[in-house]
Design a protein that fits this description.
Layout lengths: L1 E3 H30 L6 H13 L1 H19 L8 H25 L6 H35 L4 E3 L20 H13 L1
Helix pairs in contact: 1-2, 1-3, 1-5, 2-3, 2-4, 3-5, 4-5
The chain binds fe (ii) ion (2 copies).
Length: 188
């Protein structure tokens, strides 16, 4: 089976738009914690659940596969790539840490509020910086590879799973998260 790189890249860019929405929700709720207000812990839980089951588990491996293709076909466009896999691993570690903080609070355990805020901000800033690097640099290199004629790659080892929140079917657990996103969009 073959994959179309331009199509995969369009999906990755769409994922980034969705991830940016999630990051904004996280930032808003963590600011509430910082200000001593009560955040929506259920929402925080749902957002972090999503981040671990889609961006970490599907989006980043898809990118890794596409970057490997770039490295194989256009090594001239692949300088500075060593960081990328480490970055993905680091982001996954940060998201697990934050997800566990929130799960612990939801289970009734005392977790220091400023520790949660620090973990949330570290995650938000790292992921934002990472996505910006990809959008302004790595994705453009893939565009260049496609323009130069390499658009089809072998899809063996390619993880393709539908997005459980923004995909064609919303997974049951994510009903409330989708509801919140719709309300936010309607409120402008
Ligand atoms: Fe990435
Ligand atoms: Fe990405």
């Amino acid at each position: 089976m073959n994959k179309n790189a331009a199509k995969v890249l369009a999906e990755l860019r769409e994922d980034h738009r969705n991830m940016a929405l999630m990051i904004n929700l996280l930032e808003r709720e963590s600011n509430r914690i910082y200000e001593g207000l009560e955040p929506d812990y259920e929402l925080l839980h749902d957002v972090m659940h999503y981040m671990t089951v889609y961006p970490d588990a599907v989006h980043h491996p898809k990118e890794d596969r596409l970057y490997a293709e770039l490295k194989a076909f256009r090594p001239d466009l692949s300088t500075g790539f060593e960081r990328i896999t480490m970055d993905h691993r680091h982001i996954a570690d940060l998201s697990i840490k934050l997800r566990d903080d929130i799960a612990s609070i939801n289970a009734g355990n005392p977790v220091r509020r400023n520790a949660v805020v620090a973990d949330a901000l570290r995650y938000v800033n790292t992921l934002r910086g990472h996505m910006q690097w990809e959008e302004l640099d790595l994705f453009r290199r893939v565009d260049e590879m496609i323009r130069s004629g390499h658009n089809v790659f072998d899809s063996a080892n390619f993880i393709h799973e539908a997005d459980p929140v923004f995909g064609p079917e919303v997974e049951e657990n994510f009903g409330r998260l989708v509801e919140t996103i719709r309300e936010e969009a309607a409120a402008g």
